[in-house]
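Field notebook, page 284. I keep forgetting to write these up properly, so this time I am using the form the group agreed on. The chain and the ligand, magnesium ion, are recorded exactly as supplied. Prediction of the bound pose follows.
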Amino acid sequence: MSEFVEIFEMGPRDGLQNERNNIPTADKISLVNCLSKAGFKRIEVGSFVSPRWVPQMADSAQVLTNIQRQPGVSYTALTPNMQGFNRAVMAQADEIAIFGSASEGFSKANINATIAESLERFGPVIDAARSVNLPVRGYISCVTDCPFDGPTSPKKVAQVAAYMKKAGCYEISLGDTIGQGTPESILAMLTAVLNEVPADELAGHYHDTAGRALINIEASLQVGLRVFDAAVGGLGGCPYAPGAAGNVATEAVNDWLIQRGYLTGLKPTILETAAGMARDMRSK
Ligand code: HMG
Ligand code: MG
């Protein structure tokens, strides 16, 4: 029997957050509404971060409260601190995510905290989410390479992953933020992380900067990962990671998985429509 692999759609958040032009809220809502019909279980709709740091995500509450929610789809958002958490709850996010880093340089640049400070800050957010039954995902950035500190030690990634699991994250997404990972460095990192967190609680989040995201997904499938993050149209990057180009494109990952006999439950024609919408937003 064919095995199921889930693609977690990142386009409206990781895809759009890096766009410099001010994308109308209505266009973001239309994109999410289109994606909602494609068969995803989870769509990351926005982030409740400081609007000074990421102006493009300032309207995430409007987006979340105005989309047409489909039953069975979880609409998720990033929350770096309690302020973000409270805003996400008000906007009725179905799930939240905390986001940290395995490298000090990126942690400071992205959330203005050391790794230790950030983990401390996540504690109350995770506890508050659990008290209202909101699932919490954890992201770890720079799992193989950091734009500031160079190569990342697999041991450090495993330490942060172990902390997030113990703190209550139900899944940990491993970010190759600047897309410099290779199957070898991804496997070295996963070997260390798998000592702390089982494969069914991990996801691969691989940016496609160097065109290696698909072979990194292939390597990750070999060691049991079955969830991968991607963004329609290959949009995106991170505003605080110089050189971070697009996320791996959802439609490319979907085609690649289907060709290899996996099931994804996604509708390719709707993915193409959404990818077109995403590309139009970028060029506006
Ligand atoms: P800070 O400046 O240290 O925070 O930033 P602060 O607590 O000192 O607050 C400064 C100001 O921000 C205050 O406003 C706060 O009220 C406000 P002021 O009094 O000066 O007017 N503020 C907020 N406003 C709204 N919502 C909030 C919030 N928090 C503070 N939640 C902070 C610290 C974490 C807030 C900031 O660094 C930040 O927002 N960073 C987010 C950066 C970001 O979103 N990066 C992209 C997402 S991560 C990513 O893309 C990687 C990923 O895809 C995985 C991968 O690829 O690796 C997930
Ligand atoms: Mg990312």
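OBSERVATIONS:
- DSSP finds eleven helices and ten strands in the chain.
- The domain at 6-283 is CATH 3.20.20.70 (TIM Barrel).
FOLLOW-UP: compare against the apo run.
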